[in-house]
RNA sequence: GCCGUCAUAGUUCAAUGGAUAGAACAGUCCCGUCCUAAGGGAUAGAUGUAGGUUCGAUUCCUGCUGACGGCACCA
């Protein structure tokens, strides 16, 4: 029907000869109806650079439009200066309700991203936690956003692959291993004997390595700061006290040994720590509902990166990269960017350098049309440089790679630091949310197993919704004291609405009321319920276009906002009138709308990565 | 210092240059024979500041103020 309206407008624009006057349709949005009216309304604003006022223009348009027969529209009127409302027929609305019931899980899906019969291939790389470091609530945010973008893109018909890139080598790992050596439990030559054994719960084993990292990183920084404070610095302002140079060399040696796997003892400890880390990540992914297609590691990317970079470095190779102070750099200034180091003086690739090794690995695994890396916006400048390098280096796919950044999840206490231990781990946040959900369900008559399952879903929903309700570019301020909301504009509110609808449908089934949509019956339900029911219907109709908009703008919050409105409309309707009543002639249609609501809400929540318990 | 992002109600967030700037939480006041009150209803409350462009600016441009991020061997 939207299409029909657009076409009619285009025709009218031509007929009135406004094309030359540069007249544009500048807005198209749904408007809500006066109480007691049923139809969906679509408003348009007409702006122009000509002399006529928007009001006069709207009047002129409406006169002309009334001459046309637009399918599904039975009333057109001027709604204000430049606004025209199109009233959709009762029949058309009911047809959409019937369609929702028929299509079920598939309602809302489209083929917008199918090009010439082939689905667009879209890659999302997201979450990217580092083994040996904690999976903190920032990773929770990254995962939530990446997953919902991936799901959103899938609803529009694309073939989506999910990749996860993990930093299993680098200074943080070296500091962890070094930190282990500082622990009282550590004895040289004892190999892995001092580590917790497999009977200890996984989370504690991982925490042991986390503690080692904190210890190593703190000690390293202490010595560095002491050196600086004592004025023991070189020309570049870097610490150079004897003690610092000694431990720095030690850490550098460990780092190299990890990269090139030259030390059997380190390898043994490293492999175990990495395995435990990855296992704990996997447990979280399962809880969060992410299934990655492929995992990539910095250790593997490093080897390729070193080779590729050398090929393009002056004086040996082509002129993309340069040597400078013993390091290999990319002179970004030539491209209006800043210079970054790719290979350190020690001969190890930096994060920037590794990206060069990673890119072809990713493209080799999935020849995407659109390759997206989702990270926090602190990496914006880094990606500007990195993508510039990829375009120069890999003409066949470099320009297909993109970066989408999201805001940071920050605590009211400031930035998180895994070095000082001032982090909230993903696991602990979820656990405390689960406890809260369980306490709310105390009175519910359900088996403990179901309660636990439901509490998990509620906890994840509360966290995910908090992240997804706002535009992804903005920071999320998280107050660990106030915790997350289970009321109002929240994930659990949406779940609760869905559970309520299910409960209505169960009752309808018990009472033997079979939902029915009679398209030919355009009679009106008594007025006090009509406004609330009408609003619910109007919103249901808009679901497919909401998904389309959210995907094209890469904004999951568009879906979140929509679902919130939808659930509010349902709850308002629910509270105003009994839905299931055996002697109510309209009950069958009302139940049908509730079924449609249940389907749409569930489909919408799925896009956000939120599951719905049967009871809560 | 340079580059970038942001500033909407007491708080946390919405609003392709257009209709009366929407919600939620917190506040005040209502709603329990009913399909789950994690709910519903009522009430009060906001575009940082000074200009500019426009018929029209929360939205675009400039200055100012404030917050955050990035800027050579961390990831």
Task: Please give a structural write-up.
α3 (90-103) packs across α15 and α15 packs antiparallel against α17. α4 links the parallel β7 (121-125) and β8 (159-166). The protein is 50% helix and 13% strand. With 616 residues, the protein is of the alpha/beta class. The protein has 18 helices and 16 strands. The protein binds one RNA strand of 75 nucleotides through β1, β2, β11, β12 and α10.
> Cα-atom Rg, whole angstroms?
30 Å
Strands of the widest sheet, in order across it, are: 9-8-7-13-14
Q: Low-confidence stretches at least 5 residues in length (pLDDT < 50)?
A: 33-38
Which shape, going by the Cα principal axes?
A: globular
What's this, in brief?
The protein is α/β, with parallel strands linked by helices.
Jot down its keywords.
16 strands, 616 residues, Hypothetical Protein, Haloacid Dehalogenase-like Hydrolase, Chain: A, domain 2, RNA-binding, alpha/beta, globular
């Amino acid at each position: 029907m939207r299409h029909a309206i657009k076409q009619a407008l285009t025709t009218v624009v031509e007929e009135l000869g406004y094309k030359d006057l540069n007249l544009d349709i500048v807005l198209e949005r749904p408007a809500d109806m006066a109480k007691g009216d049923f139809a969906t309304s679509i408003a348009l604003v007409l702006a122009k650079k000509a002399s006529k006022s928007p009001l006069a223009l709207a009047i002129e348009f409406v006169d002309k439009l009334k001459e046309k027969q637009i399918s599904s529209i039975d009333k057109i009127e001027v709604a204000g200066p430049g606004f025209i409302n199109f009233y959709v027929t009762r029949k058309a609305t009911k047809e959409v309700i019937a369609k929702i019931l028929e299509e079920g899980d598939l309602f809302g899906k489209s083929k917008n991203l199918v090009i010439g019969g082939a689905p667009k291939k879209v890659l999302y790389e997201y979450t990217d936690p580092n083994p040996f470091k904690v999976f903190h609530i920032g990773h929770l945010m990254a995962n939530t956003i990446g997953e919902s973008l991936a799901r959103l893109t899938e609803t529009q018909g694309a073939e989506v692959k999910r990749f996860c890139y993990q930093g299993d080598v680098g200074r943080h790992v070296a500091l962890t291993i070094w930190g282990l050596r500082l622990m009282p439990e550590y004895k040289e030559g004892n190999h892995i004997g001092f580590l917790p054994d497999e009977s200890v719960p996984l989370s504690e084993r991982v925490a042991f390595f986390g503690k080692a990292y904190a210890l190593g990183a703190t000690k390293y920084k202490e010595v560095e700061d002491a050196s600086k404070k004592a004025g023991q610095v070189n020309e570049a302002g870097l610490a150079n006290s004897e003690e610092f140079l000694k431990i720095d060399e030690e850490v550098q040696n460990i780092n190299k040994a990890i990269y090139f796997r030259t030390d059997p003892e380190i390898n043994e400890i490293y492999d175990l720590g990495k395995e435990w880390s990855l296992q704990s990540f996997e447990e979280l992914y399962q809880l969060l509902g992410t299934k990655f297609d492929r995992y990539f590691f910095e250790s593997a990317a490093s080897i390729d990166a070193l080779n590729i970079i050398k090929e393009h470095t002056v004086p040996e190779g082509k002129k993309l990269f340069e040597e400078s102070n013993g390091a290999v750099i990319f002179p970004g200034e030539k491209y209006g960017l800043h210079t970054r180091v790719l290979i350190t003086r020690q001969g190890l690739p930096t994060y920037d350098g590794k990206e060069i090794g990673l890119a072809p690995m990713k493209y080799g695994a999935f020849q995407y049309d659109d390759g997206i890396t989702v990270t926090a916006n602190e990496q914006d400048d880094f990606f500007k440089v990195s993508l510039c390098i990829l375009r120069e280096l890999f003409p066949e796919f470099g320009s297909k790679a993109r970066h989408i950044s999201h805001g940071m999840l920050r605590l009211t206490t400031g930035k998180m630091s895994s070095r000082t231990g001032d982090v909230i781990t993903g696991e602990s946040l979820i656990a405390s949310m689960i406890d809260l959900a369980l306490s709310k369900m105390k009175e519910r008559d359900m088996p403990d197993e179901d309660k636990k399952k439901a509490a998990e879903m509620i906890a994840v929903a509360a966290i995910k919704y908090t992240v997804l309700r706002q535009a992804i570019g903005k920071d999320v301020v998280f107050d660990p004291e106030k915790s997350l909301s289970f009321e109002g504009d929240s994930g659990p509110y949406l779940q609760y609405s869905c559970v309520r609808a299910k409960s209505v449908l169960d009752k309808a089934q018990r009472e033997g009321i079979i939902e029915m949509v009679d398209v030919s019956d355009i009679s009106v339900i008594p007025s006090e319920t009509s406004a609330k029911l009408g609003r619910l219907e109007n919103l249901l109709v808009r679901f497919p276009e909401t998904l389309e908009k959210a995907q094209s703008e890469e904004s999951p919050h568009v879906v979140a906002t929509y679902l919130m409105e939808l659930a509010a409309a349902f709850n308002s309707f629910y509270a105003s009138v009994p839905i299931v009543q055996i002697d109510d002639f309209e009950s069958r249609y009302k139940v049908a709308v509730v079924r449609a609501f249940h389907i749409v809400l569930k489909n919408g929540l799925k896009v956000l990565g939120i599951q719905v318990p049967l009871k809560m």
